[in-house]
Design brief:
mainly alpha, Helix Hairpins, two-stranded antiparallel sheet, about 5% strand, elongated
């Protein structure tokens, strides 16, 4: 039987992998995908807590409603983030993070 601890373990692993990817990687697209992985880990945690918290014998759907809002924000983030990455690639011909660092000053 799958318990809440199993869901939280998977969510923690996803979040940790995403965090390491954000800190270690130099490619903007990879960093962006790792940020999305971290957001998915947070959504998994919300759904797991919602499933295992019962109110009058039924799951508490408040957290699942919050997940729909975070998915909506993630979709908007994808649109804006990819537009910024494409504009940066057109300007610098690279998706390396050092190209962004050179924009300072």
């Amino acid at each position: 039987m799958v318990t809440l601890n199993h869901y939280l373990l998977v969510s923690g692993l996803l979040f940790s992998i995403g965090l390491v990817g954000v800190v270690v990687r130099r490619n903007i697209l990879t960093i962006y995908m790792c940020l999305e992985m971290m957001l998915s880990a947070a959504n998994l945690t919300l759904v797991a807590f919602s499933r295992f918290r019962l109110v009058e014998g039924l799951p508490d759907y408040n957290a699942q409603a919050l997940v729909f809002f975070t998915i909506t924000v993630a979709a908007a983030e994808v649109a804006v983030g990819l537009a910024i990455i494409v504009a940066l690639f057109r300007a610098r011909q690279s998706v390396d993070i050092t190209a962004v660092e050179k924009l300072k000053g």
